[in-house]
């Protein structure tokens, strides 16, 4: 009788132990699957976010109550180059010329002053685009017509639409100034106050 009871107890212990092992194994397997899926998802997200964009734009609005500014800048990347198309309408500045630059920070607060200085990752002196030394944000001057409308188009291989902070125009501010860039005064060409601003996204 004692032998049978001992055998019964041993069988019960075996069943309980086996169940515990299977149960733990199942939990570990589920956990690993979850980790793998999470890792894969994280990797996919990272690769997607680091992929360069092919299009970006900035909607430009006025920074001062007495000056209406409507504008848009589009940036399209193709074959290692970025093409910018800029359209501006500033009725108050009809028949005048205004300076346009890319500034360092994506912030139009404080009448555009929160964008800080020109975007200049190469630490070069200010100048005219393509001539001697110039900032990567030194776009130049735009002539406005009798209705205050003006356009500019430029293509360059010095800009990108990616995560490289030394060449990417993404998350920069595009600033319209009230004056003309003289291309020589440091650090910003004596271009006047900031009357328009937009963030490149």
UniProtKB/TrEMBL annotation:
Manner of cofactor binding, per the entry note: Binds 1 copper ion per subunit.
PROSITE patterns xref list: PROKAR_LIPOPROTEIN (PS51257), SOD_CU_ZN_2 (PS00332)
InterPro entries in the cross-refs: SOD-like_Cu/Zn_dom_sf (IPR036423), SOD_Cu/Zn_/chaperone (IPR024134), SOD_Cu/Zn_BS (IPR018152), SOD_Cu_Zn_dom (IPR001424)
Keyword Thylakoid: no
Main enzyme class: oxidoreductase
A single GO molecular function term of this UniProt record: superoxide dismutase activity
Reaction catalyzed: 2 superoxide + 2 H(+) = H2O2 + O2
Residue ranges constituting the Superoxide dismutase copper/zinc binding domain according to the UniProt record: 69-200
The keyword Cytoplasm is assigned to this record: no
Feature: compositional bias, Low complexity: 27-54
UniProt entry keywords in alphabetical sequence: Copper, Metal-binding, Oxidoreductase, Signal, Zinc
Segments of this protein annotated with the region Disordered: 27-55, 182-201
Enzyme Commission code: 1.15.1.1
Pfam family, one: Sod_Cu
Cofactors, names only: Cu cation; Zn(2+)
Cleavable signal peptide: 1-28
Task performed by this protein: Destroys radicals which are normally produced within the cells and which are toxic to biological systems.
UniProt family annotation: Belongs to the Cu-Zn superoxide dismutase family.
Entry protein name: Superoxide dismutase [Cu-Zn]
């Amino acid at each position: 009788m004692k032998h049978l009871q001992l055998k019964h107890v041993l069988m019960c212990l075996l069943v309980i132990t086996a169940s515990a092992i299977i149960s733990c194994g199942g939990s570990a397997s589920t956990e690993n699957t979850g980790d793998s899926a999470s890792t894969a998802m994280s990797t996919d997200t990272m690769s997607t976010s680091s992929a360069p964009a092919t299009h970006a734009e900035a909607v430009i609005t006025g920074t001062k109550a007495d000056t209406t500014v409507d504008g848009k800048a589009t940036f399209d990347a193709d074959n290692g180059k970025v093409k910018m198309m800029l359209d501006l309408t500033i009725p108050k500045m009809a028949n005048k010329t205004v300076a346009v630059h890319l500034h360092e920070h994506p912030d139009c607060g404080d009448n555009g002053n929160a964008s800080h200085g020109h975007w200049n990752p190469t630490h070069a002196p200010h100048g005219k685009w393509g001539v001697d030394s110039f900032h990567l944000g030194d776009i130049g001057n735009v002539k406005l017509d009798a209705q205050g409308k003006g356009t500019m188009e430029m293509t360059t291989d010095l800009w990108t639409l990616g995560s490289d902070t030394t060449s990417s125009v993404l998350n920069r501010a595009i600033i319209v100034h009230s004056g003309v860039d003289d291309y020589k005064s440091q650090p910003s060409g004596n271009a006047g106050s900031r009357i328009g601003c937009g963030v490149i996204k």
